[in-house]
Amino acid sequence: MDTSTVSNPWASDQRSQGPYGLLIQQAELSGHLKKRRDRDIAMATDHAREQSPSLQLFQVLRQITAQRKELDKVNVEVQCRLQDQETNDITDLSTLENRIKQLNELSQHLQAVMQHKSHLKSRLQKPFVGEYLHIAAQYQRCVSEVFPMLAPILSDLQTNLDNIHWASTFSMDNGHMDRTLDDLTASLARLQTGLQSLVQLRGSVSQMHHTSRSQQPTGRPVS
């Protein structure tokens, strides 16, 4: 038997692949194309993943684990924000500066009280002179809020009393109201006449302007 013409299927003879086979093999070796074995393995893996419930369960568990990690990150961030909010009064610089300012004002007020302590004692020990309203302690705040509301009313009290006095003494029997109404009617009539005159004057001016524009020549003058 002549074996010279029989090709060995296990031999890696590149000449039997042809130019296209050599090109594909070089592309696979250089990494420009995926190897057919890797492609077959990937296809088999995808097929098994689609058909196997166990692999699908692993995929779902992997997704759940990733979502839990994201949820843990969010929870940690929320806790950090809550902690920052709770400790904002002792960590925020603007809040600390405001507290320091308030403490300085309180300290200055207390120092002023201590400096005028003797004067305050003498004022408190003196009896009341004049007429005062005796108000219980629980109502002092209400009274202090009422007085600012009464101040503008008391300032306009005299004007309101004068208006009331005028209304009580005014009488329509003497014909004063009739004369006032007649004067008002005459004033309105004069105002209406003047308005009509202005409207007529405006119409006349507009008509004159339109006539002057229509009489102007439209062509250019011949030189």
UniProtKB/TrEMBL annotation:
<dbReference type="Pfam" id="PF15003">
    <property type="entry name" value="HAUS2"/>
</dbReference>
<dbReference type="GO" id="GO:0070652">
    <property type="term" value="C:HAUS complex"/>
</dbReference>
<dbReference type="GO" id="GO:0007098">
    <property type="term" value="P:centrosome cycle"/>
</dbReference>
<protein>
    <submittedName>
        <fullName>AUGMIN subunit 2-like</fullName>
    </submittedName>
</protein>
<dbReference type="InterPro" id="IPR026242">
    <property type="entry name" value="HAUS2_metazoa"/>
</dbReference>
<dbReference type="GO" id="GO:0051225">
    <property type="term" value="P:spindle assembly"/>
</dbReference>
<dbReference type="GO" id="GO:0007020">
    <property type="term" value="P:microtubule nucleation"/>
</dbReference>
<dbReference type="GO" id="GO:1990498">
    <property type="term" value="C:mitotic spindle microtubule"/>
</dbReference>
<dbReference type="GO" id="GO:0005813">
    <property type="term" value="C:centrosome"/>
</dbReference>
<dbReference type="InterPro" id="IPR028346">
    <property type="entry name" value="HAUS2"/>
</dbReference>
